[in-house]
Design brief:
- The protein is mainly beta and 300 residues long.
- The chain has 1 helix and 19 strands.
- The strands form 5 sheets. It has a 4-stranded mixed β-sheet, with no helix packed on it.
- A hairpin with a 3-residue loop joins strand 17 and strand 18.
- The chain is elongated.
- It starts with a helix and ends with a strand.
- About 6% of the residues have low confidence.
Length: 300
């Protein structure tokens, strides 16, 4: 065997016997160190060599975008349509670019108070109505215009509040200065309900009730009809009366059902909350919107 061959074989054996161990250490500051440990043929570790390795810090986490809201500015005439608004009007919010679109939409506004502008049209008087609705939801309607904007002959403006994920709808109504204003929109009638008072005998039919009884609600006229119906009562508390008849004990049962629906049946009769004197018996009732409150007086 040649000397060169012997050197190669000896070197390979040395590599197999002497191992190099790398150990990585992490510091709290994001710096890594590599420790190199040599292992001798006898199994002992030689002094370690520490090699610092600096890694870049992780990228910062971007904060979420702040919430925003939208505004919709509409210009209408006396009939509340955009077609009857004066020609050429524009709308803008704060210092944004004026828009001729009608309605004009302004997106991703910061939350809080903004100034909404519209053209001040010659020969017209402007008023403002407001409402709001969720972005992507059903658009709200404006039918009353209680706000008088600030007008200077060029533009009119009013302050509005933009809330998160909502559309603030601003409607400018233009009325001709030479025409009388339209009549105010009448508010919807208040909700009402009905009452039905029935008088029955022991077999729960009207035929066995004492003759001559009457029924009434509050101070309304007395009715001899059996059952007696009382229509369009204000919702809330009322008192239902029936005639007191000597020699009979009176119990009362109450149920309710939708106006126009199937009439309910009274399951039980009691004297709870029932008051009788020498002329009448009465009980407090509650009338609900769109419902019939049925009161059945049983004479035994």
């Amino acid at each position: 065997m040649s000397k060169d061959t012997s050197k190669i074989i000896f070197g390979l054996i040395a590599v197999a016997i002497v191992g190099v161990v790398f150990t990585l250490f992490h510091s709290s500051a994001g710096t890594q160190s590599a420790q190199v440990v040599s292992v001798t043929p006898g199994g002992n570790a030689a002094p370690a060599h520490v090699i610092p390795v600096t890694l870049p810090p992780p990228p910062p986490v971007s904060p979420p975008p702040p919430p925003t809201g939208n505004a919709r500015v509409k210009r209408v005439g006396a009939d509340l349509s955009t077609a009857s608004a004066p020609a050429g009007t524009q709308a803008w919010v704060d210092t944004s670019t004026p828009q001729s679109a009608n309605p004009a939409d302004f997106l991703n506004l910061t939350l809080g108070i903004h100034t909404v502008f519209a053209t001040d049209a010659p020969g017209y008087t402007e008023s403002v109505g407001l409402c709001s609705y969720p972005i992507g939801g059903a658009e709200c309607s404006v039918t009353i215009f209680p706000v008088t904007p600030n007008c200077d002959g060029t533009s009119c403006n009013t302050l509005v509040t933009v809330s998160a994920n909502n559309v603030t709808k601003v409607v400018y109504r233009y009325l001709s200065s030479t025409q009388p204003p339209p009549p105010p929109v009448s508010p919807p009638p208040p909700s009402t309900g009905n009452a039905r008072i029935k008088r029955v005998g022991s077999d729960l039919t009207v035929n066995t009730a004492p003759a001559g009884t009457q029924a009434w609600v509050d101070a309304l006229p007395h009715q001899s009809a059996n059952p007696a119906d009382f229509i369009n009562l204000p919702i809330g508390s009322h008192t239902a009366f029936t005639t007191f008849v000597a020699g009979y004990t009176v119990g009362v049962g109450i149920c309710s059902y939708p106006i126009g629906g199937t009439e309910c049946s009274v399951p039980t009769f009691s004297t709870t909350n029932l008051t009788c004197n020498t002329s009448s018996c009465f009980v407090p009732i509650t009338v609900a919107s769109g419902n019939v409150t049925k009161i059945v007086y049983r004479y035994r």
